[in-house]
Amino acid sequence: MATTREVGPPGWARLCRSDEIGEAQSRGFDPDHEGQDSLFIVRWQGDLHGWRNACPHIDGAPMAWRRDAYLNAEGTRIVCHAHGAEFMPDTGLCVQGPCRGERLSRIALAVVDGELFVKS
Q: Which pLDDT tens digits describe the chain residue by residue (120 residues)?
């Protein structure tokens, strides 16, 4: 259900219902069915933010240490499991760690009738 290509805006792939991601929670997705999450979504202060699942410090390094675990325990920062870099959930700006000042790559999202879509 979470990564099916259902009817939505042309050129967009459905991820899930937008309300399935709660405040200060994150969830990874594999919309291209490659066997690992290529992007993740964070809900921060009511808004959904999509990010490529790759740390700018080590390009291609997946961020989560386990399934859907992209945030710190408080749910206030995105954390790279490889080296502990911390990123702001709404801007993707690295505020702590070796890639300080760099940003995560944003993924375009759309919510249509409560369904969350990503640009494919």
A: 333 444 567 889 999 999 999 999 999 999 989 999 999 999 999 999 999 999 998 877 889 989 999 999 999 999 999 889 999 999 999 999 999 999 999 999 999 999 999 987
Report the DSSP beta bridge partners of residue 85. none
Within a 10 A sphere around the Cβ of 104, how many other Cβ atoms?
Answer: 27
Per the CB < 8 A criterion, the answer to whether 39 and 33 are in contact is no
Q: In this structure, what is the dihedral angle of CA atoms 36, 71, 53, 19, given to the nearest 10 degrees?
A: 80
Determine the residue type at 59: D
Q: Token pair for residue 11?
A: 């050129």
Structural domains in the chain plus CATH codes? 12-119 (2.102.10.10)
Question: Which residues are registered as beta bridge partners of 40?
Answer: 28, 51
Is the CB of residue 55 less than 8 Å from the CB of residue 96?
no
pTM: 0.89
**Cα radius of gyration (the chain):** 14
